[in-house]
Amino acid sequence: MKPKQLHMVVPGPINQRTGGYLYDSRIVDGLRCLEWSVVVHELSGIFPGPDREARDSLTRVLENLPDHSCVVIDGLAMGGLPEPLQLHRTRLTLVGLVHHPLADETGLDTARRLRLAELEQAALSFCRRVVVTSPTTALRLTDYGVSSERVSVVCPGTDPAPEAVGPDDTGSPQILCVATLVPRKGHDVLIRSLSTLREISWNCVCVGSLVRNPDYAQAVQQQTAAAGLTDRIRFVGESDSRVLDDFYHSSSMFVLPSYDEGYGMVLTEALARGLPIVSTTAGAIPETVSQDAAILVPPGDDQLLAAALSSLLTDRAHCLRLAKAARKYGAALPDWNQAARQFDEALSELFAT
Questions:
Q1: Are 258 and 208 within 8 A, CB to CB?
Q2: Cα dihedral sign for 173, 245, 286, 109?
Q3: Closest by Cα among 214, 200, 345, 205 to 266
Q4: Dihedral, CA atoms, 250, 256, 262, 267, nearest 10 degrees?
Q5: Quick one: angle between helices 214-226 and 187-194, nearest 10?
Q6: Rounded to two decimals, what is the model's pTM?
Q7: pLDDT tens for residues 240-261?
Q8: What are the pLDDT digits (tens) for 46-100?
Q9: How many CB atoms within 10 Å of residue 335?
Q10: I need a labelling partner for 265 at 20 to 30 A (CA). Which of 97, 156, 177, 348 fits?
Q11: Could you count the other beta carbons within 10 Å of the beta carbon of residue 238?
C-alpha cells in the first residue's frame, strides 16, 4: 500500500452542514493539500440505525477496496455496524473517526443506549487506530476498551474571521445559537430560559437543521409559540457559510445549551469573532472555550442559563470583558492546516508501526 492513499467513509453526503461532516470535509481537503490521494465514499441508509441499506452500503464499500487499503470511517457510519469491519479487519487498515460516542446522544432509552454502546465498542475493537476530536472523547473511549496507545487527538481547526460588530445602534442585542435542532443541543432549555427574560431587550436567532429530528424541532417551535416568543426567537434552518457569517457578524453573544459535545466547533467559530459565550459544562466544552470568555452552567439548568444570559444582556462592561477575552483566545486557535498536519501525523504513526 502506498502510504499517501486513503479512503474516507462517511454516512451520506459529506457536504452536510453539521460539525461532524464539516470536520470530515475539511480534513479531506487538508490531507489532499498534503499530497494524500483521498477517495470519499458516501454511504446510503439510516445512521446510526442501522438499517439494512446502511449495512449493505458499508459492506459493498469495504468489499470493493483493494487489500491493505487505509480506510478512515466516520463513527456515525461504523458505530452501529461492527460486522462489516470484523470481516475486513485483517485485509484493510481500519481507522475509526469518533466525534462523540453514539450512546451519549440525548433522549435515548436505556435499551437503545446500551445496545449502541455494545455495537460501537465492538466496532472500535476492529480498528487499528482511533482518531478523536478532543481529549475528553479520548478519555471517554477508555470506557469502550480503547487504550490510549490506539488513540490520536486531532482537534478541529478554526478559520480566521472578522470581529463581530453586533446589531446596529437601534437594534436589540442579538443572541445567536448555531446547532441542529436535536435533543442533545438543548433548545428546549434555551426557550425556557429566554421566557424568563421578557423584560430585557434581546432577540435570538437559531441557525440549524429543522429536519434531522422533525418531531423535536416542531416541539421546540410550539414551545416558543406557547411562550409568546415567536416575535423574538427565529428558527431559520440551515444556512450557507455566507449567511451564517452574517449572523455571527451581527450578533452580541453566542449560546449553546448542549447536554454533550465532543468538541463544539461553533464555539470556536464564535470565539474567533470575539463573541462572549454562554454554554454548559458538558462534554468537551470546558476544554474548548476559554474560561475568561465564557459563562458555563450545568446542562439542563434553565435558571442558571437565564442568569448567565441576563448578566451579559444587562451588564455591558461584563459583556465587553468577555468579548475581548474571546477575541484574544480565538486569534490563537489552531487553523485547519494544523489540524490536517496532525491527522497526517496520526496516520503516519500508524504506518510506522
A1: no
A2: positive
A3: 205
A4: 30
A5: 0
A6: 0.94
A7: 999 999 999 999 999 999 999 9
A8: 999 789 999 999 999 999 999 999 999 999 999 999 999 999 999 999 999 999 9
A9: 15
A10: 348
A11: 17
Measured distance CA(279)–CA(189) in Å, rounded: 11
Count of C-beta atoms within a 10 Å radius of residue 210 = 18
Give a three-class secondary structure readout of the chain. CCCCEEEEEEECCCCCCCHHHHHHHHHHHHHHHCCCEEEEEEECCCCCCCCHHHHHHHHHHHHCCCCCCEEEEEHHHHCCCHHHHHHHCCCCEEEEEECCCHHHCCCCCHHHHHHHHHHHHHHHHCCCEEEECCHHHHHHHHHHCCCHHHEEECCCCCCCCCCCCCCCCCCCCEEEEECCCCHHHCHHHHHHHHCCCCCCCCEEEEECCCCCCHHHHHHHHHHHHHCCCCCCEEEEECCCHHHHHHHHHCCCEEEECCCCCCCCHHHHHHHHCCCCEEEECCCCHHHHCCHHHEEEECCCCHHHHHHHHHHHHHCHHHHHHHHHHHHHHHHCCCCHHHHHHHHHHHHHHHHHC
